[in-house]
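Cross-posting from the modeling subforum.

Setting up a comparison between two proteins and wanted a second pair of eyes on the formatting. Protein 1 (sequence, then structure tokens):
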Amino acid sequence: MTTTTTGTGTLTLGSAVTGYQSFADAGLTDGQTVTYVIEDDAGAWEVGTGTYTASGTTLSRSVTESSNSGAAINLSGNAYVFASISAADLGAFATLTGTETLTNKSLTSPSITGTILEDVYTISGTSVTLDPDNGSLQTHTLTGATTYTDGLSSGESIALIIDDGAAYTITWPTMTWVNNAAAAPTLATDAKTVVALWKISTTLYGALVGDGT
């Protein structure tokens, strides 16, 4: 966009240069922060971050680097400003190497080499919501009669490893047991009982994997 601003203060934005969008048309909203680049016809340049204000169409200036030894350039009144992306911005995106945390991302037909590391979660208490967000492997040493509540969404699953040395009573959520004669297992008291739980649509399924009867 053009700007006729002079000096080192907040920019007043003009019109979009032919072939380009205005900040608003590009999706920038009032109060949003953006990385900007200014190129002045006098040959100076500036890179920084600024807050866009829709009313009056202005952009504040917080300089990251510039041709003026890192300080704000003294605008001539005939300059251009555009939204850009910096190396620091790129650091917020996933890289091809190293450890990255991806949240709410969909991976289509991924090819995975090596072992998948699953979260292991230790359950406590006697009134428990079985929530896969806590981990796909969950262990529970019973301390009394226990009630489990369904916290799974369709497509989610967990492996539940139960240590019950005192034959405590378990109250399970409504579910379809696919083995063990279609009945909830009796927990082992001399070993750990492993139960697999998964949900398809609104139906919670369970299967006895190891020990128990």
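Protein 2 (same layout):
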Amino acid sequence: MADISIRGLDDGVKQKLRRRAAAHGRSMEAEVRAIITMAVADEQPRRDLFDVLLDRFDDLGGVHLELPAREPIRDRLDFN
């Protein structure tokens, strides 16, 4: 396992971290480990703005439209 030292951490951040660790019933070191692990985990796939907006306003109802099938790319026009 690797070790990491964090220098220059603001005192206010340290106090918040201490309270957060206490609320979760673990040491500050274990809390930092959990935060870093969650930050780098790819648990949720990236979502684009459209998906986020759909989820946000889904409770309001709305119109759900079926998208038409895409047509194949047409040949280029020859102007010669």
